[in-house]
């Protein structure tokens, strides 16, 4: 495994761990202050941290200006991030953190598989093998089982 691959795996694995914490915390914050105020506050914190990181990393805001010059459809990542935080804020206190994350991951994989299969959104085409299909089916079953008490 190359160092780039190892770094990618480590970052995404820790992001998965962070997602579990995020779902629990956002559910709790939403219960205390309301769903929309919790969403707005979390988004404000994200924006402030992103600007701080941008300032340290790039020492410029030129990247933001460059992003504004891109086609509007490429801005959908920000909208999707907001929707994911809204969804986990609503779902985790109602169905539990494990079920919430299970369904988020199941949805992620279904959409990612479609994007890979047809090369959507500028990505390379990657075939759906029986291994991938089995993984999706098992994940869907596992997500459904997390709802059982």
Structural class: mainly alpha
Q: What is the number of E strands?
A: 0
User: β content, as a range?
Assistant: under 5%
Order of helices and strands: HHHHHH
Rounded mean pLDDT score: 91
Task: Determine the fraction of residues in helical runs and give it as a percent range.
Answer: over 70%
Rg (C-alpha, Å): 18 Å
Backbone shape: globular
Instruction: Please count the helical segments.
Output: 6
Could you list the spans in which at least 5 consecutive residues all have pLDDT below 50?
A: none
What does this structure look like?
The protein is an all-alpha fold and 149 residues long. It has two domains: 1-95, no CATH class; 96-149, no CATH class. Helix content is 80%, strand content 0%. It has six helices and no strands. The longest helix has 31 residues, at 3-33. The mean pLDDT is 91.
How does the SSE layout of this entry go?
Elements: H1 3-33, H2 35-57, H3 62-68, H4 76-95, H5 97-118, H6 130-145
Which features would summarize this protein structure in a list?
2 domains; 149 residues; 6 helices; mainly alpha; single chain
Give a nutshell description of this structure.
The chain is an all-alpha fold and 149 residues long.
């Amino acid at each position: 495994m190359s160092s780039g691959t190892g770094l990618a795996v480590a970052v995404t694995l820790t992001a998965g761990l962070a997602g579990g914490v995020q779902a629990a915390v956002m559910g709790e914050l939403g219960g205390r202050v309301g769903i929309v105020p919790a969403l707005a506050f979390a988004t404000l914190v994200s924006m402030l941290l992103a600007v701080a990181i941008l300032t340290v990393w790039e020492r410029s805001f030129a990247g933001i200006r460059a992003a504004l010059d891109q086609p509007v459809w490429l801005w959908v990542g920000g909208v999707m991030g907001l929707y994911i935080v809204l969804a986990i804020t609503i779902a985790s206190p109602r169905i539990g953190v494990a079920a919430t994350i299970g369904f988020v991951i199941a949805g992620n994989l279904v959409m990612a598989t479609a994007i890979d299969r047809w090369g959507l959104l500028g990505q390379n085409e990657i075939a759906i093998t029986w291994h991938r299909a089995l993984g999706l089916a098992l994940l869907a079953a596992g997500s459904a089982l997390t709802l059982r008490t």
